[in-house]
Amino acid sequence: MRVLIADSQKDLEGRLTELVKKCGHEVLLVVGSGLEVIQAHARLRPDVILMEYSLPRFNGAIASRLILAKDPEVKIIIFSATTPPDKLRDAGVVAILRKPVELDKLYAALYDAGSRRIA
Predict the structure, then answer these.
(1) What is the pLDDT of residues 21-41, one digit of tens each?
(2) I need a labelling partner for 107 at 20 to 30 A (CA). Which of 1, 17, 48, 55 fits?
(3) Strand-strand pairing, 75-80 and 48-52
């Protein structure tokens, strides 16, 4: 699958990219804000968006709602150290991962997202 990553912490950018590649998927781009992920989604049309909850310029819940309103087929996985579940319950995300993201949990979330695209 083609994955777009949104992470405000540039020092973790390479780690997430490597984890996604280890799971057998292609990383299209890594961006650092909610606005950038919305714009990148419109240009690149990824299969999956792996997005930090605490992004500047639109948090993960707001960005998810805006993206899914235009593309209900894209699958969004949120990751965060302190994700408020009430804000994500109606955001349409397929999975919520804790930071730091673990390879096995990411693999499972990406596998599930891929299965939902096929179904």
Answers:
(1) 999 999 999 999 999 999 999
(2) 55
(3) parallel
What would the pLDDT profile of 30-89 be if each residue is shown by its tens digit? 999 999 999 999 999 999 999 999 999 999 999 999 999 999 999 999 998 885 666 676
Query: Using an 8 Å Cβ cutoff, are 53 and 59 in contact?
Result: yes
Q: What does the alpha-carbon distance between residue 106 and residue 21 come to, in Å, rounded to a whole number?
A: 11
Strand (E) or helix (H) holding 63: helix 60-70
Residue 7's nearest CA partner among 92, 69, 99 is: 99
For the chain, the domains span: 2-118
Tell me how long the chain is. Answer: 119
| Strand partners for 95 | 77
- Over the range 14-45, which residues count as b (16 or more CB within 10 Å of their CB) and which as e? eebbebbeebebebbbbbbbbbbbbebbeeee
